[in-house]
Design a protein that fits this description.
Blueprint (H helix, E strand, L loop, with lengths): L3 H27 L17 H4 L6 H17 L6 H13 L8 H34 L4
Length: 139
């Protein structure tokens, strides 16, 4: 039987993922011409240096947000060689965490997942608002 806290966390995780998916769907329905986002600089740095990818314009961010949503919904993890190497390095740096108790480890990962998904949801909403500004639509 699940504890009340475990059920609460499961509901929050599903709700958080649903909010992100909904924000991306709204973005897709609003952004009818994604090419208008090309060469429009993002308002904030999205940690592009860490991923070594060029994501300086809103079009790249648009594609990234859609890809993340598709990965989260389909549970597909496709890694190219570069990402596999960076994941291996990350796993080595997290090895000391593996010695902790499983409950703490799960809490650590859930906290990180919630943080990332909430951040992506906000970025998706900002991109949608920026697109509406570009085409001259007032909320």
């Amino acid at each position: 039987m699940q504890s009340a806290e475990a059920q609460f966390n499961k509901t929050n995780l599903l709700l958080t993922l649903r909010r992100y998916s909904s924000a991306v769907s709204d973005m897709e329905q609003t952004v009818l011409l994604p090419s208008l986002l090309r060469d429009v600089p993002a308002d904030e740095a999205w940690d592009c240096e860490a991923t070594e990818e060029s994501c300086g314009d809103l079009y790249s961010n648009y594609l990234m947000l859609k890809a993340i949503r598709n990965t989260a919904e389909c549970s597909l993890v496709l890694l190219d060689d570069h990402k596999a190497e960076s994941n291996a390095a990350l796993n080595k740096s997290l090895e000391p965490l593996l010695d902790t108790d499983p409950e703490s480890l799960v809490r650590f990962h859930l906290s990180g997942l919630f943080s990332v998904i909430c951040d992506l949801t906000k970025k998706t909403e900002k991109l949608t608002v920026k697109y509406m500004d570009i085409i001259g639509v007032v909320n």
